[in-house]
Amino acid sequence: MLENYAEEVKGLGVGSHLWLFDNNVSVYDENKKYLGRGKWRKYSIILATSRSWVLEGETRVDKISLTINRGKYGREQAYTEKMMHDRIWVSEKRLRLLDLLQRCNDIEKLKMVATILGFN
Questions:
Q1: Does 2 or 117 have the greater pLDDT score?
Q2: In this structure, what is the dihedral angle of CA atoms 65, 54, 70, 80, given to the nearest 10 degrees?
Q3: What is the rounded distance in angstroms from the CA atom of residue 16 to the CA atom of residue 57?
Q4: Backbone angles phi, psi at 38, to 5 degrees
Q5: DSSP string of 67-80?
Q6: Closest CA to 76 of 48, 43, 46, 28
Q7: pTM, whole model, 2 decimals?
Q8: Residue 1: its pLDDT value, please?
């Protein structure tokens, strides 16, 4: 995943920002209508070690994988701003694209999609 963001990750340093997705938050609009779970939170990198970035709140992020070791809870992914926006785009568009693909009967379009995805 990170190979697509190598230049952006290489540019990280003290003062840069990383984003974490907090799934323990319920999100509502201004009319108090429930919108779902989760909220993106922005953190500043405040310190660099040889192996990790240290975020506000003393959270350590591995410089190579951009992951946080949460002990028995596993690992959590940290995101650059571009990675976060790409993840949001995928989560908002993937099911709609799948629906359009399932209804598509145009052989040329389906062949193009197959080629792009490496499906022969």
A1: 117
A2: -50
A3: 15
A4: 105, 145
A5: EEE-GGG-EEE-B-
A6: 43
A7: 0.78
A8: 66
Distance set, CA 20 to CA 7, 48, 53 (Å): 20, 18, 14
Looking at 1-120, list the stretches that DSSP marks H as alpha helix, in order from N- to C-terminal side: 6-10, 81-103, 107-117
Average pLDDT score over residue span 78-98:
92
- Dump pLDDT digits (tens) for 38-78: 788 999 999 999 999 999 988 999 999 999 998 888 899 99
102: confidence class by pLDDT, cuts 50, 70, 90: very high
Boundaries of every domain in the chain: 2-117
Both tokens of residue 61?
């992020």
pLDDT of residue 62: 95
DSSP string, 10-65: HT--TT-EEEEEEEEEEEE-TT--EEEEEEEEEEEEEEE-SSEEEEGGG-EEETTT
Rounded Cα distance between 55 and 92, Å, is: 28
Amino acid symbol at 88: I
What three-state secondary structure class fits 25?
Answer: strand
